Structure formats: C-alpha cells, structure tokens
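Question: Send over one sample?
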Amino acid sequence: MLELGPLHVRRLHRGQMFPLNCSYFIASSIAIFGLLRKKSVRYRFIDHVVNFKPNESFLGVKSVSFEEYDLKTPFGDSPKFPVILLVESLFQAAYWLEVLSSDFKSCAIADEFDSVTLFDSLRPGEKAFIEITILSRGKDHIIFQGSVKMENKKIATISNVHASLFPLEDFDDSSDLRTLFGEIYE
C-alpha cells in the first residue's frame, strides 16, 4: 500500500474497480497539471484530436512513448503505461471539449467520479483512442463518461465524472491553446 498524506492507494490490477472516494486520481491530476504549468512545459495528454461535437462528445488519440511506458520502472514497478496518465488523458479530453465548446472562454476541471475500470495496459508505440461523452451540463459543471480503446479492445472506462467549469484564463493562455489546437486537429 502506498500512503500519500491522508490518502491510501492500492496498486492497480486488471478489471479492478475504484470506489467513489478516488481523490488520489483527482489530487494527482491537479498536481501534474500544476507542476507542468509552473515549469512552463506543455505535456500532451491528447496528441491528436480526431473529432468533437461541441457540448456533446470528443474523440482524441494518445500515442504511448517509450518514456511514458517506462516511467515507473525506477520505482521497482514493471514497465507499463501509468494508469494515472490514462485517467488524466480522459480529464484532458473533457478540458479540451469545454475549451472548444466555449470558444476558448472556459475549461472543465474534473473533481469527482464514480469509478475507473482498467481492462488492459498500453505498450510503447500503441495509439489509444480517448473518447468522452457529456451526460449532463449545469451552469457551472459538466458530468461525463469516458473510455480508452485501442482498435476494438477496451483499455479503461471512467464513469460519472463531475467537472467544474472555470474561466480558461485562470488555467491557460487561450492564444497558446489555439496554436496547439491548430497543431493537433486536422
């Protein structure tokens, strides 16, 4: 068991469901996002946008690099693409969908979800399709579900994700995102 402050995290196994109290993923996601912002590094959780329907759905691609695949081996784990990066890719798909739906005025930050199910892992060079669908929308939040697939093989799913909406300027520069979007969308 890995202990992070008041949080206790179990190692992941195929098909394992995570309970509602998944604050580890949310906290890790916020920490990753904050760390990358402070270092002015643009890490791509979505490498290519395939398609999106404003306020409805998003389909993107995440290509697994050898560096990502081998990220956990210095800590004694076997090489595999970290689940937290899969989950963050789903969160970033929602972030992009809200940015695009609002014409670069607001963004979605995930803060709660029901469960994540891991079916398999990804290997270097593989391309995962990251798909989310908006289930409902409120004035200050969205609720979505998502999946990670490789061809016809399901890799992971996430259900009932609550994401709060914030002004984009609080998290990103809209002109930088417009430039990035031009690079990752055909």
Summary: Residues 66 and 146 are 24 Å apart (CA to CA). The chain has one domain: 10-184.
